[in-house]
Design a protein that fits this description.
Layout lengths: L14 E2 L2 E3 L5 E3 L6 E7 L7 E9 L5 E7 L7 E5 L5 E5 L22 E2 L5 E5 L13 E5 L5 E6 L8 E9 L6 E7 L7 E5 L5 E6 L6 E10 L4 E8 L7 E5 L5 E5 L10 E2 L6 E2 L5 E7 L7 E6 L2 E7 L14 E2 L5 E4 L3 E6 L4 E7 L14 E2 L5 E5 L9 E5 L5 E6 L12 E2 L5 E5 L9 E5 L5 E6 L7 E2 L6 E2 L5 E4 L2 E7 L10 E6 L13 E2 L5 E5 L9 E5 L5 E6 L14 E2 L5 E5 L9 E5 L5 E6 L13 E2 L5 E5 L9 E5 L5 E6 L13 E2 L5 E4 L10 E6 L2 E7 L13 E2 L5 E5 L9 E6 L4 E5 L2 E2 L4 E7 L6 E4 L2 E2 L2 E5 L2 E5 L7 E8 L2 E10 L4 E6 L2 E2 L4 E7 L6 E4 L2 E2 L2 E5 L2 E5 L9 E5 L2 E4 L5 E2 L2
Parallel strand pairs: 63-70, 72-80
Antiparallel strand pairs: 1-4, 2-3, 4-61, 5-6, 6-7, 7-8, 9-10, 10-11, 11-12, 13-14, 14-15, 15-16, 17-18, 18-19, 19-20, 21-23, 22-23, 23-24, 24-25, 26-27, 27-28, 28-29, 30-31, 31-32, 32-33, 34-35, 35-36, 36-37, 38-41, 39-40, 40-41, 41-42, 43-44, 44-45, 45-46, 47-48, 48-49, 49-50, 51-52, 52-53, ...
Length: 909
């Protein structure tokens, strides 16, 4: 599912941070250092919407709008938009709107097609069939202004004539600019009819339906500019009871076009309930479904006030039973759907051509809403339901029949308990513990632009297992590895085609060898995978294990007693010398948990029992800081009993560096993450100003509170943060957000990140440094020496290699938000010339140049004229005098700089 939800209760998702730390225990307001966090994706897409209804519409800016009748935060439906770049956003209907609108005037259950008004606003009906919404509970007319603001401009009132039980949708009269719609009831007559809606929200009843017109209006009507008339289909009535077409003007005068008998017995006739369509040829078209096997439906036309059948569906390849209205396309064809395909109808040839066949494998279903053709020529449509779990989807297709699902309103996953993994392709990958088709968890991909795709639904294969707790790991060949809490160690590769990923179990878990892995695997220096089991094994205390990419499993360390520790929940960390470091949740002489070190062969180097003062019950592993020590979080203990950040030397010396308090956050379940600036970042699951936890960083002066989690971006952040290519951190929240099912969020810290640069240049030469978050750069150093520089934009800096730069080293960019270091940069020596032989010659003559540091020379000029050349050695270059050369100096350029001859080369005739 590709989705980015943005409830309009908050017009801006980025919440301002109001707190920053100035010391170990004092937190003060410091807006200058404020950070912000944004919701990227809320899990459980029923909240995003369910059961999309009716035709969509496109605004001049290219944005497409539509509705879902159900779903949303209060299951009262949504109004959604799809940007020209494919970004999907929803505006929840229901009680949430009461924050912005007067009491009881919030829209619910939008169930009409959207209409673009002459003022550039979009209009639709909400609550027309549900008996909800509005001041009197009889539905609303909803307006979306060009600015994107949503408002109710009319609340239906059953005490007024024709102002109750609104019919679906409105139609624009291009002649007078007003909107027209249907009312199915209303006092005092309880008659249905047509009303006119003005821009100020005032309503005028213009036409009351009579028995002679027929009954069961199927709206909205269609407006034909050529005769300035509306055409409306009636489901029943007329001479044969098969329905009528009512033709009427804005003034309310009308005439009736009778539908002749389609079948000998009227009771066998079932006209499909869909509105009419204006074709590009100026005629009115519609579809009807007939139960007799002799006919599986018809396409009819109204021309010169005469109704006629123009096509009979035979029920073969053309498809039986048309199930939505026709859509007039720019190519002159009319597009529609039957119960098993999408087709196009040629009015001139009266032929139907199927262009796409529905299959359950593609999430198709027979309940197809009306199509809409965008300005680009692509059609958008929706299934009100889908085979499972039945909440519908939005799709698009081309005139050639190429179909793509845009949004599937399934439960895409709930309760993410693992950190995100930044894949080799730059996207983020993660797992959810529950949700998905079988409510056993999912594997998903999250792009930086907010697009989320479910790759796998756990529960599909019992060998793979269910309910993943630990995150994903990717090896250099692109293969992903993960664990399920109940089941196995598995692997997968990304699908080549847009289909669900094939996940394969490589090792089945059992109690004898350990079970309940709670953390991601790591890829060891030897290419094998290493991890921990939280329980099971010889004494039930869990273990440390190694597994090859092919599934050969070896237990390295059994946790058998309180002395060694019990129940590791951690991801392991490996040092440069191969040593593995980790933690246990319990055990040790104080039963507060332990930290340990062992070799890849399983030999224990040391074990340290934690004390309550140092920190208790560490639920995550350790991470190396830039000073060579290891750092971790303890979920309990410390001065306030709310957890700590502690430090461990590689020799096993443990020290508390900070105790959490209620104001700074409590019970950190997530590991620390090292940023490119050498600073450690983490999260707490509780406490802080909002009570939902905090996002923080650890500096030499103590922790800084970066963001007070507010429940909107999520709550209970129990997983680690992942650094993204945009210089910000991405994470998952276990709960909270729109549905309480968790989220993916981004913490905007604007840390500078160097991507690449010219790796070799001479002193005094200008180089280009590319990356992110450079706009506020305060200094650039090259190989240890300060460099003069210019910030061209947020992603590009030019810097001059300083005279004091060492021969090799790193480039460092510093901003108020941090420092980014990347190497290696090499100072190239400047080229020098000692002689040119001969000193003169004609065009085409051979010339040699002697000197030093010629390696990497990129150009050779005779008085500005480029010449072809060969670098024979660092001290010798061969060339020929080029065509067009004139007398003047010789110049060469290399990464180290330029060299120009002190005498002129004479070009002879």
């Amino acid at each position: 599912m590709s989705v980015f939800s943005n409830d309009r209760r908050r017009s801006v998702l980025k919440a301002s941070l109001v707190l920053a730390a100035t010391g170990l225990s004092t937190i003060t307001v410091s807006p200058a250092n404020a950070q912000s966090a944004s919701l990227v994706h809320p899990f459980q897409s029923y909240v995003v919407g369910a059961n999309p209804d009716m035709r969509m519409v496109q605004k001049p800016d290219g944005t497409i709008y539509g509705t879902t009748e159900y779903g949303g935060r209060y299951d009262k439906g949504t109004i959604f938009s799809i940007s020209p770049t494919g970004r999907f956003e929803t505006f929840s209907c229901g009680e949430i709107m009461a924050d912005d609108l007067p009491s009881a005037t919030y829209p619910v259950n939008p169930n009409g097609p959207l209409t673009l008004g002459s003022d550039g606003s979009i209009y639709t009906i909400a609550g027309g069939y549900t008996g909800e919404g509005g001041n009197t509970g009889y539905g609303d007319i909803v307006k979306i202004a060009p600015s994107g603001e949503l408002s109710v401009i009319y609340a239906y009132d059953h005490s007024k004539k024709g102002a109750s039980s609104p019919g679906p949708g409105l139609v624009l009269n291009s002649a007078d600019g007003h909107l027209y719609g249907l009312a199915y009831a209303g006092d005092p007559t309880a008659k249905s009819g047509v009303y006119r809606l003005s821009a100020d929200g005032s309503m005028t009843f213009i036409l009351e339906f009579t028995d002679a017109m027929g009954s069961g209006p199927i709206g909205p009507p269609v407006f034909r500019p050529s005769d300035n008339r509306f055409y409306l289909r009636m489901a029943t009535g007329g001479s044969n009871g098969d329905g009528t077409i009512v033709k009427f003007s804005a003034a309310g005068d009308y005439s009736v076009i009778d539908i002749p008998d389609i079948q000998p017995t009227p009771s066998n006739v079932r006209l499909y309930q869909s509105p009419l369509t204006l074709g590009k040829d100026g005629n009115i078209y519609g579809v009807a479904t007939v139960d007799k096997f002799a006919s599986r439906g018809v396409i009819f036309k109204v021309a010169n006030d005469v109704w006629s059948i123009v096509y009979n569906f035979p029920g073969g390849a053309d498809g039986p039973f048309p199930v939505n209205s026709l859509t007039a396309a720019a190519d002159g064809f009319l597009y529609g759907a039957t119960t098993n395909n999408i087709y196009k109808f040629s009015p001139g040839a009266a032929t139907v051509t199927p262009i796409y066949t529905f299959t359950n494998n593609n999430g198709d279903y027979s309940t197809v809403n009306d199509f809409f053709q965008s300005a680009s020529g692509v059609f958008y449509g929706s299934f009100k339901d889908t085979p499972y779990p039945g909440r519908g989807s939005i799709f698009k297709f081309t005139t050639g029949g190429a179909k793509t699902t845009v949004v599937s309103f399934d439960k895409d996953g709930t309760t993410p308990l693992a950190p995100l993994l930044r894949g080799l392709d730059g996207n983020f990958y993660g797992v959810t513990y529950t949700g998905g088709k079988y409510d056993k968890g999912t594997i998903f991909r999250q792009s930086l632009d907010g697009a989320e795709t479910v790759l796998y639904h756990f529960g599909l294969d019992p060998l793979v297992g269910v309910n993943p707790v630990g995150g994903l790991t990717q090896t250099a060949d692109g293969t992903f590895y993960g664990t399920t809490h109940y089941g196995s160690i598995y692997k997968f590769n990304l699908p080549v085609a847009p289909a669900l990923t094939k996940v394969t179990s490589i090792y089945k878990l059992d109690s004898a060898h350990g079970y309940g892995p709670r953390a991601a695997l790591i890829v060891g220096l030897d290419g094998n995978l290493y991890g921990t089991m939280s329980s099971g094994g010889a004494s039930g205390g869990g273990n440390v294990f190694k597994i090859t990419p092919n599934g050969v499993f070896t237990i390295l360390l059994e946790f058998t007693s309180a002395a060694t520790g019990l129940h590791p929940y951690c991801t392991l960390t490996q040092g440069a010398n191969g040593t593995l470091y980790g933690t246990t949740l319990q055990g040790g002489v104080n039963d507060q948990g332990t930290v340990f070190a062992l070799t890849p062969a399983g030999a224990v180097l040391w074990t340290r029992a934690l004390t309550a003062a140092q920190g208790a019950s560490p639920r995550q592993g350790l991470v190396f800081g830039h000073d060579g020590n290891l750092f971790g979080t303890a979920s309990a203990g410390g001065a306030a009993g709310l957890g700590t950040v502690y430090k461990v030397s590689t020799a096993g010396v443990v020290s508390n560096i900070f105790s959490f308090t209620a104001s700074t956050g409590g019970h950190p379940y997530s590991p620390l993450t090292s940023g490119p600036n050498g600073v450690l970042y983490g999260a707490t699951t509780s406490g802080g100003p909002q009570g939902y936890g905090t996002l923080y960083r650890v500096t030499s002066g103590g922790p800084s509170l970066l963001y007070a989690v507010d429940g909107w971006i999520g709550a209970r952040v129990s997983t680690g943060l992942t650094f993204g290519p945009d210089g910000n951190f991405y994470g998952t929240a276990q709960s909270g957000s729109q549905s309480g099912a968790g989220s993916v969020f981004v913490l905007d810290v604007n840390i500078p990140a160097i991507d690449r640069f010219n790796t070799t240049a001479g002193k005094g030469v200008t180089i280009v440094i590319l990356g992110t978050n450079f706009e506020t750069a305060t200094s650039v150093t090259i190989n240890g020496a300060p460099a003069s520089f210019s910030v061209l934009n947020d992603n590009r800096i030019t810097a001059v290699v300083p005279a004091g730069a060492a021969s090799t080293g790193n480039i460092v960019v510093t901003t108020p938000n941090g420092t980014s270091t990347k190497g290696t940069f090499t100072v190239a020596p400047a080229p020098t010339m000692t002689g040119i032989h001969p000193g003169s010659g004609h065009v085409g003559a051979a010339v040699s140049l002697t000197g030093a540091n010629f390696t990497g020379v990129t150009s050779f000029l005779f008085n500005g004229k480029p010449a072809q050349f060969t670098v024979a050695s660092p001290t010798l270059i061969y060339t020929t005098v080029p065509q067009g050369a004139t007398t003047g100096p010789v110049k060469i350029t290399s990464p180290g700089g330029t060299a120009t001859s002190s005498i002129s080369f004479q070009v002879t005739p």
